[in-house]
Design goal:
The complex is a heterodimer. Chain A is an alpha+beta fold. Chain A has helices at about 30-40, 65-75, 95-110, 150-155, 155-165, 190-195, 235-245, 260-270, 365-370, 390-395; strands at about 45-50, 85-90, 115-125, 125-130, 135-140, 155, 170-175, 215, 225-230, 235, 255, 280-285, 290-295, 305, 315-320, 320-325, 330, 335-345, 345-355, 360-365, 375-385, 400-410, 415-430, 440-460, 460-480, 485-505, 510-525, 525-540. In chain A, the strands form seven sheets. An eight-stranded antiparallel barrel of chain A has the order 21-22-23-24-25-26-27-28. In chain A, strands 2-1-3-7-8-12 form a six-stranded mixed beta sheet, sandwiched between helices. A four-stranded antiparallel beta sheet of chain A has the order 16-15-18-19. The longest helix of chain A has 15 residues, at about 260-270. In chain B, the strands form four sheets. Chain B has a five-stranded antiparallel beta sheet with strand order 4-3-6-7-9, with no helix packed on it. In chain B, strands 12-11-14-15 form a four-stranded antiparallel beta sheet, with no helix packed on it. The chains are: A alpha+beta, B mainly beta.
């Protein structure tokens, strides 16, 4: 018997009425009364539990009601969450698809200030179904959901996220205490179960991207979220409530932020479930983490080391030789100098000595970026051609080229790379000028470009895409019985740079690059716009 | 907006340029057997492309568009030939020695009003000027291959007359061209421009007496 539950909690809160800002970027000197009256952030919570549905083929959840009680209690607690406006939805009438969306829209009408803290917590069954486009999508089992037709009657997570995204506040947390794997708090139709069983691994559904600032899930996709008889709660919810009671205040500043609460609940859930349930978080806004779910900042906290970067998943964060946590997550340390290491098994990714001050938050991703070589020098070999056949016939056929490039990773932020490249080559070929015999000629061409690209890295792989501008110089030489001479043209080409690389060790890399460009060359006295594409393979060394 | 797009295009176009038009032109080269001073080789489709063979008969016409052309070889007062030549862009089409056969004889008679001078008459056949001058009777003879040709007679001050004339080798054909009395309009001012035959005087009306 699979236990299914969904629960999560979201808490958000700001510290505008305090004299300290989490992250310590700005210190404003105001009288406490003035700040409280003018800038105090309001806290809203919508806590939803769907213990049963009208269609009794969805098995009832034992502790969804208690999850709602516990979460709303800790949020209302004057010494804890201090939420002034907590709405709970539990009855069958309150938890239909339409009623739930109405409640979210009502929340959006109330929480209109950018610094309002808004939490939407849902503990319910989850399921998977094919949506109208045939894509596998996650659904929340509302009280009116039909077991045989969840796509039409249940509430898609995507739709819920979109509705929650309409809340004007910038401090929003959506907590989903549910799962969609078919185990734990999830039920799947026979059709979807058969489909998933035929796959070798879990398939992550395609969903519209959420506008919510933070989405915390009780389990990662493909892993069950469970209720527990001993805890008498959804497991993740139990530890989330525990975190909000104050235990999650990792840096001891008096406040429990969303990431602190999730890290606490994630770690505890992982241990409690013996690794079977791994809560996940989609955190769009990390940085200073302004979403305080419980308490308030009353003092400067200990320095924190953290990372939620996907590429660092599974790495152990060691401070002064002692393992403090496994990423994603964070750890608080004493102020002062520390040796920080990231390791996975015997592999050491980075080891750096850092000096940390009280209240400082350091994303260890920055240490990795700093430690990694940032400049790649590569030799290129590839080819180029005009996209259309007419230009290849009448201007110049495609050809090979060789060259070199220098790429600067992590310019304008860690995600951007800048590349300078130059290439050229020559050869002999012929033109096809319509009706006549091929016209033999020799050519020399050169290209020089500059590209700026957004880079995505995963382990030893990196991919990039961005704008590029290049100069194209072409010289054709003819030695015909009736005509001899050279023709030269130069043009600027705007376009794009797409590519990917695999790194061997930490220094060598092999990359593939593609550059679709647009150029305008003067041909027969008229300007002719032409598509131009170049591609090359490159072997490089990183400094 | 259009100006902006044009500016961007000019910026992108950079400088220099590639010229394929020169690669679509070829050269026709050959030797006319027994050339005379009147010999002429004409690209029939583009009569402005023509060449007068040298004393040894060699001729060359450059800038001929690639493709199939018709070449008129007017070798002498009696012999003429029409050749079909395939021209390759950038290449030279060597015709070798051309020995025109006996052609059709076209006699062009030019008649002018009231003793106007015919000394400056220009006869154009197939778009090319015939080199030979009119004789005293106002006649010029041209040998042509069988076919139909535009024939034009023009005298400054008296205007021009054009006719489509068909000939068939080796037959002869005579065609009269009658230029009209001057009327003082531009190009037809009469003897004040064209002059009068010997012994005649040009009047203010443009007529000769």
């Amino acid at each position: 018997m699979t236990r299914l539950l969904i629960a999560t909690a979201c808490l958000a809160l700001s510290c505008a009425h305090t004299s300290l800002e989490k992250g310590g970027a700005v210190v404003v000197s105001l009288k406490k009364g003035q700040a409280d009256s003018a800038f105090e952030a309001r806290r809203f919570a919508l806590v939803v539990g769907i213990p049963r549905a009208a269609d009794d083929r969805w098995r009832a959840l034992q502790f969804a009601s208690k999850d709602v009680d516990d979460v709303s209690r800790v949020l209302r607690d004057p010494l804890g969450g201090r939420y002034q406006n907590v709405t709970t939805l539990l009855t069958e009438a309150q938890t239909t698809k339409a009623a739930l969306l109405d409640a979210v829209h009502a929340l959006a009408a109330q929480a209109t200030r950018p610094d309002d803290i808004v939490v939407l917590y849902v503990s319910a069954h989850g399921t998977l179904a094919r949506d109208g486009r045939g894509e596998l999508a996650r659904y929340l089992v509302t009280s009116d959901a039909d077991f045989t037709d969840p796509a039409q009657t249940a509430l898609s997570i995507s739709e819920l996220q979109q509705a929650f995204g309409t809340v004007p506040s910038k401090r929003r947390v959506l907590v989903l205490a549910t799962c969609h794997s078919g185990g734990g708090k999830s039920l799947l139709s026979e059709e979807v179960s058969r489909e998933l069983a035929s796959l070798k691994g879990p398939v992550r559904p395609l969903e519209e991207s959420s506008r919510a600032a933070m989405v915390l899930s009780a389990s990662d996709f493909g892993e069950p979220a469970r209720e527990d008889e001993g805890l008498r709660n959804d497991v993740y919810t139990h530890f989330l409530v525990e975190a909000l009671s104050g235990l999650g205040d990792r840096n001891g500043d008096g406040a429990v932020t969303a990431t602190e609460a999730h890290d606490w609940a994630r770690r505890k859930t992982w241990a409690f479930s013996n690794g079977r349930q791994r809560p996940s978080a989609e955190i769009i806004e990390v940085g200073a983490d302004p979403i305080i779910l419980s308490g308030s900042i009353s003092r400067e906290g200990k320095p924190e080391l953290f990372s939620y970067a996907q590429r660092l998943d599974g790495f152990a964060l060691k401070v002064d030789g002692e393992e403090r946590t496994e990423l994603p997550g964070g750890a608080a340390v004493a102020a002062g100098r520390h040796v920080v290491e990231l390791t996975k098994g015997p592999d050491l990714l980075v080891r750096q000595e850092v000096s940390l001050e009280v209240g400082q938050r350091l994303d260890v991703q920055e240490l990795v970026d700093r430690a990694e070589p940032n400049v790649a020098v590569s030799l290129l070999a590839g080819g180029f051609a005009f996209i259309d056949q007419k230009s290849r016939d009448e201007v110049m056929p495609g050809g090979a080229n060789v060259g070199a490039s220098v790429r600067f990773d992590r310019v304008f932020g860690s995600r951007f790379a800048l590349e300078l490249d130059g290439s050229g080559f020559g050869g002999a070929s012929s033109l096809q000028l319509g009706g006549g015999a091929p016209v033999p000629f020799t050519w020399v061409s050169g290209q020089g470009g500059i590209s700026l690209a957004w880079t995505w890295r995963w382990r030893a792989l990196s991919f990039w895409a961005g704008p590029r501008v290049a100069g194209l110089w072409v010289q054709r030489s003819f030695s015909l019985p009736a005509y001899s001479g050279q023709q030269t043209a130069f043009s600027m080409m705007p376009g794009a740079w797409l590519g990917g690389a695999v790194t061997f060790g930490s220094r060598w890399e092999f990359s593939l690059n593609l550059q679709p460009m647009l150029t305008v060359l003067t041909v027969d006295g008229a300007m002719r716009p032409m598509g131009f594409v170049g591609g090359w393979a490159a072997a490089g060394y990183k400094f | 907006m259009r100006a902006l797009l044009a500016s961007v295009a000019v910026l992108l176009a950079g400088c220099g340029g590639l010229d394929n038009s020169v690669l679509r032109l070829g050269v026709v080269r050959g030797v006319v057997m027994n050339p005379t001073i009147e010999s002429l080789v004409i690209v029939e489709q583009l009569p402005e492309l023509n060449a007068k063979p040298a004393a040894d008969g060699r001729f060359e016409i450059a800038g001929v568009p690639q493709g199939e052309i018709s070449l008129l070889v007017l070798a002498s007062g009696t012999n003429a030939e029409r050749l079909t030549v395939k021209v390759q862009g950038g290449a030279v089409s060597e015709l070798g020695t051309v020995s025109p056969k006996l052609g059709a004889r076209l006699a062009v008679h030019v008649h002018v009003p009231s003793n106007q001078s015919r000394a400056n008459a220009v006869v154009t056949v197939a778009g090319a000027v015939v080199q030979k001058k009119l004789d005293r009777e106002g006649e010029v003879e041209v040998a042509l291959p069988t076919g139909c040709y535009p024939v034009k007679v023009a005298i400054r001050g008296l205007g021009a007359v054009e006719k489509q004339v068909c000939v068939e080798a080796p037959k002869s054909r005579e065609v009269d061209f009658e230029l009209l009395e001057p009327d003082g309009s531009p190009g037809r001012e009469g003897c004040s421009v064209s002059g009068c035959e010997n012994g005649h005087v040009c009047r203010s009306s443009g007529a000769c007496e």
